[in-house]
Amino acid sequence: MKTIDWKNVERILVIRLRSIGDTVLSTPSLIALKRFLPDARVDILLERWVAPLLDGFEAVDNVLIAGDELGGRLRTAREIRGNKYNVVFNLHGGTTATFFARASGARHLVGFASYQYSFLYNHRVPAAVEFWGRKEVHSAEQQLALLGSVGVQVGDLPRSRLAVTQEALDSLRKKLTAEAREGGVSFEKFALIHPAAAFDTKQWAAENFARVAEFLAGKGLGTVAVAAPGEQGVLEALAAHSRVPVITFDDLTLPEITALASQARIFVGNDSGIAHMAAAVGRPVVVIFGSSNRVHWRPWTDAPNEIVYEKFDCQPCPGHTCEVYGTPKCILGVRPESVFEAIDRVLEKKIG
């Protein structure tokens, strides 16, 4: 394995394909890189739909977009090749990410030895648990271990962070103000709820979130709930079951959701990318877990936070379906009272 002469590194590419949560949890690695080499160009390759998440993020110089089709990916590969990166970190490890890493022509390609095509990398680093000397690690720690294994300073474990752009904040204010006139929610005093999730094993019932909205109302907080465009049904169910007004949005951009989260008094929701966004803007968060790995996916923040769950021996699991009980008892068994208690504890803590 070649040694990286960091004094001569001028251009770095980080590859992190896939989801919102994956992208948010790559920000500690980006922060560590920019701090380690403040004069180097640090770029990141993301999928098109998630790329706006890093609008205004100061630890990245350029966001590159992985093409949606073969032609677009080939154009991106040529762009990457032309940028002449010295070092490429593949935080993802999949086939497409490996294609882009190899296409870069970089002298130093860094990936985990466990990757499917690890032989294509000249820096094959051991598992993150070996780097940290622990049996379990967080997703952010896993990515930081890739950097740390080749000499980047990561020991202080930077937390996830997102930027709030003025443009997103202004457009959000207009949308929320219009809705608030009808829903009776103050922009200065509200909670953000995200009642949707990728799988049934991660999605707490909308009726339970309605009880949360009522509990928050008792504390003087209005509720704003968000979901993706195809998830309007869960928002409608939440509003229908709630005895207090709930403002709902299924059409906010990712920068607008970031801005919304930054203004909320607290976030309450399922384990999801939106939860990681709220944590990354330093808001208190309460996250409800079902099938997910709680150690690997808990909020990566120094802000007040708690996770709520019911313990089952079968946790964690892939989450696509419940193979043990048929119905996901892990998420269905979480009591609203447990969430209320977590909200109380988090709200009592001061934000540092």
Q: What topology emerges from the helices and strands here?
A:
Blueprint (H helix, E strand, L loop, with lengths): L10 E5 L4 H5 L2 H10 L4 E7 L14 E5 L3 H14 L3 E4 L4 H9 L4 E5 L10 E3 L2 H5 L6 H10 L17 H18 L6 E5 L11 H12 L4 E5 L5 H10 L4 E4 L4 H10 L2 E5 L2 H8 L4 E4 L5 H4 L7 E4 L20 H4 L3 H13 L4
Parallel strand pairs: 1-2, 1-4, 2-3, 4-5, 5-6, 7-8, 7-10, 8-9, 10-11, 11-12
Helix pairs in contact: 2-6, 7-10, 8-9
Q: What's a quick, concise take on this entry?
A:
The chain has about 350 residues and is of the alpha/beta class. It has 14 helices and twelve strands.
Characteristics:
Rossmann fold; 12 strands; six-stranded parallel beta sheet; alpha/beta; 14 helices; 352 residues
Derived structural class? alpha/beta
Regarding CATH, which class of the largest domain?
Alpha Beta
Number of domains: 2
> Mind telling me which CATH architecture of the largest domain this is?
3-Layer(aba) Sandwich
Low-confidence stretches: none
Main pleated-sheet profile = 6 strands, parallel
Using the alpha-carbon principal axes, give the shape: globular
Radius of gyration: 21 Å
Largest sheet: spatial strand order: 3-2-1-4-5-6
Number of helices: 14
The end-to-end distance, rounded to whole angstroms, is 42 Å
Q: How much strand content do the residues show? A: 15-25%
